[in-house]
């Protein structure tokens, strides 16, 4: 019989993931300020792929062979959740503050996930969800209007935020694909396949910029952040996220994303000194409210009944 403690474990895994991701936005900004954004993305997930391969080698030797179709599904997930997501994300970080990314991506991703589930008929719509999604759309518009008028990050802030929006689209698709990719594959292997496939593509994208980096001049702080991003923000976080999605489903997993802006805001303001304008702050509040209402349907979902993938 499953105990309450065991049933709650997927949410503990997801919360740990959100803490790691919350700090990763600011950490990624530190790296992007030192190297081209393509190189920064590859360092994060190239290192993450190596870390996962080592773990698989040490702890996953007895797994049965994975069918070729499952390998291709894992690689396809990597194209979405690693390559496309991070190509847009790191490009956006080279233009806009990490504070914007830490609000737009984790909040818009569950909104987009919920919208797709409703449109596809996989979940039912009700008044609370419709109102929530509408508020989310209004909040996003206000936030982008504030980014367009912001002067603290220059005129490139709005294009950067647009790239963060594309990242959110990629992550919503990645979340929806999670249960299908996980079916019949151990989470460790599924995560490794996706990360390696995405890392190879990020490496190919970064090749032209690698020659421009003075590797010997990079400070130790940059390398420390690369290590955190590769091991904590990529390898460990993605593995825990896959496990959580497999246990509770994409909708409930997306709900946990609301903790990311809190962690990111603390890191971005206290460590990097970033800030939002009043219009962006207002848009963020409306967006958070709408997203929370859309996902919870006006009530908190029960956390004691994880669903099968």
UniProtKB/TrEMBL annotation:
Start and end residues of each EamA domain: 11-144, 159-295
Recorded hits in Pfam families, A to Z, give:
EamA
Which InterPro entries is this protein grouped with?
AA-Vitamin_Transporters (IPR050638), EamA_dom (IPR000620), EmrE-like (IPR037185)
Which SUPFAM superfamilies does this entry report, sorted A to Z? Multidrug resistance efflux transporter EmrE (SSF103481)
Q: Quote the subcellular location field of this record.
A: Membrane
Is this entry keyworded Metal-binding? no
Question: Which protein, by its recorded name, is this?
Answer: EamA domain-containing protein
């Amino acid at each position: 019989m499953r105990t309450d403690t065991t049933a709650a474990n997927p949410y503990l895994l997801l919360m740990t993931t959100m803490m790691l991701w919350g700090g990763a936005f600011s950490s990624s900004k530190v790296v992007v300020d030192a190297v081209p954004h393509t190189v920064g993305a590859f360092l994060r997930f190239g290192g993450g792929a190596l870390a996962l391969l080592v773990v698989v080698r040490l702890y996953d030797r007895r797994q049965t062979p994975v069918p070729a179709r499952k390998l291709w599904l894992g690689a396809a997930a990597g194209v979405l959740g690693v390559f496309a997501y991070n190509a847009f994300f790191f490009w956006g970080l080279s233009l806009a503050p990490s504070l914007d990314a830490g609000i737009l991506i984790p909040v818009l991703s569950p909104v987009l996930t919920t919208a797709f589930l409703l449109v596809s008929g996989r979940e039912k719509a009700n008044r609370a969800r419709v109102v929530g999604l509408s508020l989310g759309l209004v909040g996003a518009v206000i936030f982008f209007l504030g980014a367009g008028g912001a002067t603290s990050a220059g005129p490139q802030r709005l294009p950067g935020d647009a790239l963060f929006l594309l990242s959110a689209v990629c992550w919503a698709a990645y979340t929806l694909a999670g249960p299908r990719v996980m079916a019949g594959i151990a989470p460790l292997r599924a995560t490794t396949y996706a990360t390696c496939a995405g890392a190879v593509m990020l490496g190919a994208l970064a090749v032209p910029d690698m020659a421009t980096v003075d590797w010997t001049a990079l400070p130790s702080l940059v390398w420390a952040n690369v290590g955190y991003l590769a091991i904590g923000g990529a390898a460990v976080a993605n593995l825990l996220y896959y496990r959580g999605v497999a246990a509770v489903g994409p909708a409930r997993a997306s709900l946990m994303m609301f903790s990311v802006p809190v962690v990111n805001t603390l890191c971005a303001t206290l460590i990097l000194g970033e800030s939002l304008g009043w219009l962006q702050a207002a848009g963020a509040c409306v967006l958070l409210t709408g997203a929370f209402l859309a996902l919870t349907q006006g009530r908190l979902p029960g956390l004691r009944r994880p669903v099968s993938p």
